[in-house]
């Protein structure tokens, strides 16, 4: 607001055509401090006023050219000067003139001659009025300006408000949510377009109505309850509800927020509702949830696979993870039962798993149960997804059960082991379309993980089997599947340790089949193997659990009997009982590939209980006992005897030394003369001697049998024949010995050698020897061992002139029939009969019989072991042709034999000279 300026120099225009008056008045005013302009006539006054409007004009009326009234009229007519207050200063004083002046807009009238003070007072007054007027005008202008502004603002706010309302309306209408407003009684006050769709009515038709006018009472009650809940809680209440739209039948899940609406006094005036369709969000959430579940199941599956070593456990835990973590209703694993062409469930978990017992899933496409999703998955070797189990044409046979279990979708994934489909992993979900792309990927990954585990199991199984096979080969005899020597040692050690603690005895039984070698040689190894397998089975049937039977090799078995009595006599009796049972079982006839075989066994038994006894010692002991049993005759058992052990140890040492004997020229031939009835030396039997470096001369009785058992008899036998032939050749070249014959002992293994005949022939040819001077002594047992082979070989040799003598005749089971078939030249009466001549009548009779038999067959008879003249005389009396024995000579080294021969011939020729009278 402007302040009123009273002391300022007001600008006054004085107009008077009289210069003196003009001056007087101007001076007067100037003297009062006013700014004064002056004008001498009307026109100049108007021009000056318009150019610079004064605050007050003092105007003379009576002026030439243009009077004061006209000037005033013109000034009032001009906008720049119309407001300038005009005081007429005139000599005119009539009222009419004053009225005319006021009519023209003048503010005062001062009559000339004026009073100075009056004039100044009037001037001051009008100037104040001018000031006041100006001030007032300023105030008015100021207020007007404010009013204008307010108006403008009001206008703007009005426009904003109108705009906002429109936006709000648009917003409410455009928003996809359903919005409505109800009064406290549930009567609709407003709703948006989306809500109109729900009830299928326009807002105008909804307003004034309640939910009961549009939906079922039950649903309307539900809405009402939620309205009340929000109202009474006095806060926003949320709930989820399924709503069906009247306009297009759409049904969805809505999240509804209900807010109470209050007036400024806090009184409830209604409930505002907003409902948002969350169906898709829920579906997406459920999908994510499902994927997360499956992912969790997959992770768990990986953990299970990493830790599980058992297939059945793996399957069960995988199914369990699929249900408990993967959110599946049920899961199971089935394996292909190729024989029955169906799927056999092996693991399951979840609701409806019991159905599997009744479920039939065939792999045969022609079967009514052969086209299930699982059957197809296996046949096509790829997953089959059944997204709507209850409406899928291929699930018909299982639908009823599936409905009960709540299966809405199923997945069947083939399982592979080492790349080959061997089964399937089947899952059921409680929602249709549960297996979207992501779920499929996860399940395929899960099935591939199971495949990986199956491959690992197969590898582990193969390795286990290989290890078991390695163990079997290491510890078991591949032919009979019995523990081998290695395992036997372990078991023996264990048995001795256990029984030493308890004080019980352990028995070890060494079993050897009699004549097994003969079966093997005559019938072949296949039959021999069959016998061993059968024997192994029979042995096992004779034993208790905890006892062991092992095969050492060949036809040798060892049985360990545990926990025998503490008392040695009783324990021995227990072992003997089992031993006899074994012998009896082993001697039952065998059917070997259609061939019936009879065989027996021999057994050596040892009893042990001291922990310090080693397994080697045990085996040695029972080996000794076995040897004893064999010597006592076949099919018998013998307990271990320490004295026998000593003998065997010597034998073992001999066996060792025997190996070098030939190489080191430790053998020599001794010659024991054979004479005729008149005492003439016709030849000799060569008898081998072993000049042992430590033991001295070793008798053949001590080593021939050993050599036969170890096979060393073959080179030794060859050496004897070659040495004998070489000697015959030497003699042939010395006239006095030229007619001597040599008898050579041939052992069975030597004779049965394939090249035996060839060897003799070759040796005879080599020495260009007369074969008739070589006599081969064969024993009865040798001949009967393989009669066909013997006859053939004897005949072949006979054809070239070799002669044969049947050694030890009378001791064996001589078969006269074969005797007649064999090309024998001589029967050698065993010395056991000869030496009993004159002692037992029987032997004398036997000797007579043998001699008579030989005579009848036309073959020679030779008595060996003739020690006395009495024996000789008896033999001579009964017609024995030849003699051999200590009576004539012991076996002698070559030089001594030759000396004796020369001496005897000399005596004989002297005697013949005497008798013929030459001397
Ligand atoms: N008590 C007694 N004994 C007499 C008498 N006359 C001879 N003997 C012995 O009786 C054995 C006869 O030989 P053998 O029956 O063929 O029995 C032989 C023969 O079966 C075997 N043998 C010896 N040398 C050889 C050989 O070079 N090859 C083979 N395969 N066996 C041989 O060894 C056996 C034993 O030979 P030796 O110890 O030399 O024992 C010889 C001989 O010394 C006697 O009047 N009284």
Automatic annotation (TrEMBL):
Coiled coil: 129-156
PTM-bearing positions, type 4-aspartylphosphate: 60
Keyword rRNA-binding attached: no
Superkingdom assignment: Bacteria
Positions of the PAS domain: 164-234
PROSITE patterns named in the record: EAL, GGDEF, PAC, PAS, RESPONSE_REGULATORY
Alphabetized InterPro entries for the sequence: Biofilm_reg_signaling (IPR052155), CheY-like_superfamily (IPR011006), EAL_dom (IPR001633), EAL_sf (IPR035919), GAF (IPR003018), GAF-like_dom_sf (IPR029016), GGDEF_dom (IPR000160), Nucleotide_cyclase (IPR029787)
Domain (PAC) ranges: 238-290
Response regulatory domain boundaries: 11-127
Domain EAL: from-to ranges: 651-905
Keyword terms, alphabetized: Coiled coil, Kinase, Phosphoprotein, Transferase
SUPFAM superfamilies according to UniProt: CheY-like, EAL domain-like, GAF domain-like, Nucleotide cyclase, PYP-like sensor domain (PAS domain)
SMART domains from the UniProt entry: EAL, GGDEF, PAS, REC
Domain GGDEF: start-end pairs: 504-642
NCBIfam families: GGDEF, sensory_box
Protein name, entry field: EAL domain-containing protein
Species for this entry: Methylomonas albis
